[in-house]
Task: structure prediction
Amino acid sequence: MSETRFWLIRHALVEENARAMLYGVMDVALCETTLLEQAPMYRALAERLPHPARWVVTPLSRTQRTAAAIFAAGYPQAVPSVEPDLIEQSLGEWQGLPHADLPEKLANPAHAFWPLAGNEKPPGGESMVEVVARAGAALERLATVHAGEDVVIVSHGGTIRAAVAHALGVAPDNALHLSIQNLSLTRLERHPGGWRVVCVNELPGY
Result:
């Protein structure tokens, strides 16, 4: 069995009001102005990504609209499948809170580069430890179903960090140090002997 090649893209920038709060798995809209301004990045992704490829998005519209923008920029039209287990970290009852209101609710100090430490579990939500487990299981399943193929996944910053944590076998707090920018590309490969990280946070056009 040859390797399965994963191409993970973080969705485009969300609208300004959403960025002011903890939105987690809320279905917030993309920033329309940025969608237009970043047209060259979509064209670069359309040229960079392999085809044919399987396409996967999450249930949230921000990943689906990002995929649609890449198709509109020149990538051959595909019909993505929806994978709920690759959705962003659920912040439960804390979703919708302004960022400034979060620290007083935390049981553990916040991570330097993420609102929560890896083991912090919001009421009604999930910890990053749990995100790594569900995202890792989804990737293993996709690697089996699509063995030897290219799989393009439009997902979320937290989930892509979780995917890298799964591939490297590192703790979530270590993976949260990674920068995963909007529209960046992270490449993972599932070989018979294990996972390989090809690149993280590659920006289209650079």
Q: What stands out?
A: The chain has one domain: 4-202. Residues 46 and 74 are 6 Å apart (CA to CA). The radius of gyration is 16 Å. The mean pLDDT is 96.
